[in-house]
Amino acid sequence: MIRNRSLLDTIFFNIHLDGSILCLHSSFSKVKHVFINPDNLIDYFLGKGCTLVTPAHHYQRRVRYKPSMNILQNGIDSDNESHQSMDRIYTPENTEISSEMGIVAKHILLRKESFIGYHPENAFASLGPEAEAIIQSQSPWNVYAPYDRIMTYDKAFILLLGVDLCKATPIHYAEYVSGRIPFIRWYCDENHVIRPMRVGGCSDGFDSCSSVVSHLNQCKPGNSGWINIYPFKDFIHELVQIFRQNHEITRCSDPECPRCRDILKGGPFYSFKRYGE
Ligand SMILES: [Zn+2]
Description:
Shape: globular
Helix content: 25-40%
Bound molecules: zinc ion
Number of domains: 1
Low-confidence stretches: none
Radius of gyration: 19 Å
Mean pLDDT: 91
């Protein structure tokens, strides 16, 4: 018997997780005492009728572009500018994923039955009965559309396995719902046309939210700390209220962070350029 698997079975039974939507964020090295390999983890949840949704982001598809409008408060600094200089073509068939996403997300992405969102940088991947319904709405501009869809399910949870809230992408969605506009970046599509996409901001300060959502955690303190489960809708509603009252709670520890600086003011807005500007 794998250590702690029985704890997971008990949690599943007690809070009726069978058949639910699970927004999964994981560090496999922290849970390998529970699962033999990443596919074993994935099959455990699929075997209970769940739909798994995970970020499958890829951070090297931006291109440099100067739009005809001024975009102000857009979280760009010199690092971002150099990051944007990579010139690559994005096609929906592309299944690359950044290593920071973890091995479980990669295995979800690479399964042939996986559904992958249409977004060059912040795509989501999903497996299970509701995967297509959740993923199909994602577009480069509507980056968090899958979460809009998840809000319509009664049985949807955020499942953190061996990671803290800094890895919880739904917090970006809570920022968006609270009125923070995602940053705008650029990509090159398969017709070699440069197009805009909206992307998430800085998440380094997100763990500061743990105290305000701890009462929603379905796992009792002391349950070894490797698993945390929050009801999706309640988690989002709680954070939206908090963000409207306390903008600073998500600010990271870098006082110079341009993304925190700009997103806390509400994110990007536009102005027309004057002649000759
Ligand atoms: Zn920051």
